[in-house]
Design brief:
Elements lengths: L2 H16 L4 H14 L1 H8 L3 H13 L26 H9 L21 H16 L2
Helix pairs in contact: 1-2, 1-3, 2-3
């Protein structure tokens, strides 16, 4: 473990002890200590710094995902560089599509799983029949 992370672990255990084992209060106490202790603050935030900086750039450029920094989020720019709104028909088609992306997906939907082997089908059938027999 890195030297800074050893310091964080020691301070976290100290906070848990000071909070009487209450993790929520220990986290709040550790946050207060980090505000006063620059070394602790830097050790706590160092592992997250790469993601934080990427997020700051993404927000500043208005990118919709981490892969298209500076992009238009899938919409074409109209006159004077403004984004054109999505047409209602396109929106309804996207909502109704089963193969399209969901609000939380990053990739296209996966292909359906391949057929299981005969041994696998037999095992599943046996398990299902054993489950049905139980009172």
């Amino acid at each position: 473990m890195a030297r800074g992370q050893d310091y964080v672990k020691a301070k976290a255990l100290e906070a848990v002890e000071a909070a009487g084992g209450n993790r929520h209060e220990a986290a709040l106490l550790l946050r207060v200590w980090a505000d006063a202790d620059d070394k602790l603050y830097r050790a706590l935030t160092a592992p997250l710094m790469g993601n934080l900086t990427a997020l700051a750039v993404q927000r500043a450029t208005g990118a919709s995902d981490g892969h298209s920094i500076g992009g238009t989020g899938g919409r074409k720019k109209g006159a004077k560089g403004r984004k054109q709104p999505i047409a209602e028909a396109d929106l309804l088609a996207a909502i109704g599509s089963r193969s399209g992306q969901t609000m939380s997906s990053y990739r296209q939907s996966a292909a359906p799983p391949s057929q299981g082997s005969a041994r696998h089908k037999q095992a599943v059938t046996l398990l299902a029949s054993a489950y049905r027999r139980k009172p």
